[in-house]
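Below is how a single chain appears once it has passed through the pipeline. First comes the sequence as given, then the structure the pipeline wrote out for it. We keep one example in the README because the format questions we get most often are answered faster by looking than by reading.
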Amino acid sequence: MYEPNVVGDWQEYDEHAGLRVRVHRLELAEPPRGRDDAADGLTYFCLRVTVENRGSRHLGVHLEDGQIDVRLGPDGESAFIDWRNSQFIEGFDVYPLRRATAVLYAAGAEASLSLVDVQVQLRVEEEWTGRRLWAGGIGAHEGPAGAQQGPVRDSLAHQVSVFLRDQAEEGTA
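Resulting structure:
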């Protein structure tokens, strides 16, 4: 069964040796050039998508609008993507042991931000890679595990967080 990555995990691409990607730094943030009028009443957040080349040759990477899809809440509604404030990777050669990062500003209903799914489809050397999914949320890690209610308690990110905390507690005993 296919399991999504947790926000912060690296995902390697078998078809491009040494290439890996991650979605990280999912946090509330206001856009640098001001809010878009279409996002009136929505809560802004920011996330980063980093491409790292651990291979032996440079790779031409494209990560532009339309290659990142963000869904919110238990129903997977589409987030508002602020293309004007976001920064993409547009035809950049990532050399060995180097990284390139795209910064995406999006907005959604505040109540839906505890469940965020990000799907990325990278284009490398004019060839499309398979889609990869990261699951996370804003505020999903706050408070003790027993205090959380509803879908956040059952989210993959929360389950992983509880598992890691339990493993750490076992290791300190």
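The chain has a mean pLDDT of 87.

See the next section for the split statistics.
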